[in-house]
Write a structure and sequence with these properties.
The structure holds two protein chains of two kinds. Helix content of chain A is about 25%, strand content about 20%. Chain A has two helices and four strands. In chain A, the strands form two sheets. Chain A has a two-stranded antiparallel sheet with strand order 1-4. In chain A, strands 2-3 form a two-stranded antiparallel sheet. In chain A, a hairpin with a 5-residue loop joins strand 2 and strand 3. Chain A starts with a strand and ends with a strand. By secondary structure, chain B is an alpha+beta fold. Chain B has one domain: Cytochrome P450 (Cytochrome p450, Orthogonal Bundle), CATH 1.10.630.10. Chain B has a five-stranded mixed β-sheet. Chain B is globular. At the A-B interface, helix 1 of A face helix 17 of B.
């Protein structure tokens, strides 16, 4: 599984990188970005789900790794 | 202001300046959510109020049907002259796409986490200096003597206005913030000294450019052209108005909560790692800001016959109490793990100062409870709340306990 942020939906609410700084960072505009390729382990999957559940814009998606 | 009769039914005649709404809007919103869920009023020239999260969310994201050219409900229906397009009076909050995105991208970097987080030590020092001012007092007006004074000092510094002007600046800001409910002519009159002060600052920055937001705006370009003076001025006014009574309200409301909930206060004192989630719950439960939109043209929307230039008031604080989205929505849960609150709005107009607001709120609460680990309301009846689209306590006498 991997976590992705849809850059068209993200508005820089700033919740993901506050909740899970090991998974997310921000760009120069303050929008969320995924660190690395977003691949999740069993532990980080829970953290990614928590970030997802706190995104007001519903911009975070957890998808099958391709 | 005319036609200020008391509200009998908020579903058909709501008024966000009615004393019942000002003092405790939450039961009203809950009732509206169950009954309507979109309330209407003929006041202000005609206005709608969606009380559900779904309604607020849909309108906030629909920039095709609604315009942001006016975001504060005035005394009547706006006219074309009230609504300069595309810049708007205070870009980017009053701008619509596509200009909005251009104006917003310009100032987003200044409010991104990195530059904002760098302000933390100064904000902490400021909070401590304010607490030193009231040291030893048995009763502290945490709104007037503390929360009120934090945001203007930070904004003054970001804009690069002289430190010696702090008092003057705070005074000016309050004139503006409090003038919002005045009739148009008085409001314009109140604004004259601010305009003069800002103009002087702009000229001074043109002569002596430095590393601050005013210089940045003066140097900024869109499509190879310097910004119009109205654009620079409008954005400065926006930063001033939007950055001050909002955070003042959030800090005040959070302290109001802690004064009445000693178990939450004790947890924050003893479990400082809770602060990050607690801040989000303060923001959800006491979200201070509602923003307006205007209907672009006659449309049937959310089951309502909306007319061109009807107001629509986006109750983000009401959306934050919608049980469809939040479990135990009417309960303050200090360690709420899942909290998709919309205190900073939704969609393209997400509060540009949200990183700064969060930082100020967190540091203000941390420093206050570190200095005063126990306090309570001195007198419930002395607490007063602001009226209008920004809600927070304006008098908050707290008794400091040993």
């Amino acid at each position: 599984m991997k976590v992705v942020i849809d850059g068209d939906i993200c508005q820089g609410q700033g919740r993901c990188f506050s909740i899970a700084p090991s998974l997310f960072d921000f760009d120069d505009l303050g929008n969320g970005v995924v660190l690395g390729d977003g691949t999740l382990s069993a532990e980080t999957l829970e953290l990614a789900r928590l970030a997802q559940a706190n995104c007001p814009e519903h911009a975070i998606f957890i998808v099958e790794s391709s | 202001m005319t036609d200020k009769h008391a509200v009998v039914d908020f579903a058909t005649d709501w008024d966000h300046t009615d004393p019942e709404w000002v003092n405790d809007p939450y039961p009203i919103w809950e009732d509206l959510r169950l009954r309507c869920p979109v309330a209407h009023t003929d006041r202000y020239g005609g206005a709608w109020f969606p009380a559900s999260h779904a309604g607020v969310s849909k309108v906030a994201k629909d920039t095709d049907t609604f315009t942001s050219r006016a975001v504060v409900i005035g005394n009547g229906r706006p006219t074309e002259e009230d609504l300069p397009a595309p810049i708007g009076l205070a870009p980017p909050i009053t701008s619509d796409p596509p200009f909005h995105q251009i104006a917003r991208k310009l100032i987003l970097p200044a409010f991104a986490p990195r530059p904002i987080n760098a302000l933390e030590p100064q904000i902490r020092a400021l909070c401590n200096a304010l607490l030193d001012e009231v040291v030893g007092e048995e009763i502290v007006n945490a709104s007037q003597s503390y929360a009120r004074l934090i945001p203007p000092a930070v904004i003054r510094q970001m804009l690069g206005f002289p430190e010696a002007d702090t008092e003057k600046f705070i005074e000016m800001v309050h004139v503006i913030v409090e003038a919002i409910d005045l009739p148009e002519e008085e409001r314009i009159e109140q604004f004259v000294p601010v305009e003069e002060y800002f103009t002087r600052q702009i000229e001074e920055h043109q002569a002596n450019p430095r590393d601050d937001l005013t210089t940045f705006l003066l140097n900024a370009e869109i499509g190879g052209e310097k910004l119009a003076v109205e654009h620079v001025f409008g954005t400065m006014v926006l930063i001033l108005v939007a950055g001050i009574d909002t955070t003042w309200s959030a800090v005040g409301a959070s302290l109001w909560h802690l004064a009445q909930n000693p178990e939450d206060l004790a947890r924050l004192v003893h479990e400082p790692e809770l602060m990050t989630v607690a801040i989000e719950e303060f923001l959800r439960f006491y979200a201070p800001v509602t923003m307006a939109r205007l209907v672009k043209q006659d449309v049937e929307y959310l089951g309502c016959p909306m007319k061109e230039y009807d107001w629509i008031l986006l109750g983000f604080p009401a959306a934050n109490r919608d049980p469809v989205v939040f479990k135990d929505a009417d309960k303050f849960i200090i360690d709420r793990a899942e909290n998709r609150h919309v205190a900073f709005g939704l969609g393209i107009h997400r509060c540009i100062g949200s990183n700064l607001a969060r930082l100020e709120l967190r540091v203000a609460i941390e420093e206050f409870i570190q200095r005063y680990p126990k306090f309570e309301l001195a007198n419930r009846n002395d607490v007063t709340w602001s009226q209008g689209q920004i809600r927070g306590p304006r008098n908050l006498p707290l008794r400091i306990l040993a």
